[in-house]
Amino acid sequence: MNNKLFVGNLKFDVSEEELKTAFAEAGVVISVSIPTDKYTGKKRGFGFVEMETARDAQSAIDRLNGKSIMGREISVDLARPKAMRP
Fold first, then answer.
1. What does pTM read for this prediction?
2. Phi first, then psi: what are they for 75, rounded to 5°?
3. Which of 1, 11, 9, 21 is nearest to 79 (CA)?
4. What is the rounded average pLDDT of the residues 3-7?
5. Cα separation of 76 and 86, whole Å?
6. Higher pLDDT residue, 85 or 77?
7. pLDDT higher at 12 or 82
8. Could you give the angle at which helices 54-64 and 16-24 cross, rounded to 10 degrees?
9. Which H/E stretch holds residue 69?
């Protein structure tokens, strides 16, 4: 099982530290990234959280999918590999 999670429907002002704190309740967080638009520099409303183990990743999905972070209901699922681009 993949340990990297996709987190959708994030508020645009959520920080990586706030996301890390929320996911730390489910297990050990290895990394957090919130992509930004390359033209505007603004956050894109989604992020990725890498957990230490598959068990931690599943625990994060079970605990946090559909929960509110900063007043917004987030979606949490396993991240899919990036599609090959020509």
1. 0.91
2. -115, 140
3. 1
4. 96
5. 29
6. 77
7. 12
8. 100
9. strand 68-69
| Residue type present at position 70 | M
Residue tagged 């996709």 (tokens)? 6
Query: Is the separation of the CB atoms in 21 and 69 below 8 Å?
Result: no
CATH fold label, 4-78:
Alpha-Beta Plaits (3.30.70)
**What local confidence, expressed as pLDDT, does residue 83 receive?**
76
Per the listing, tokens 């409303």 go with 45
Residues 39-52, buried b or exposed e (16+ Cβ, 10 A)?
eeeebebebebbbe
Cβ pair 74, 4 in contact under 8 A: no
Tokens of 63: 């605990």
Domain edges within the chain: 4-78
Which stretches of 10-60 are assigned E, i.e. beta strand? Answer: 29-33, 46-51
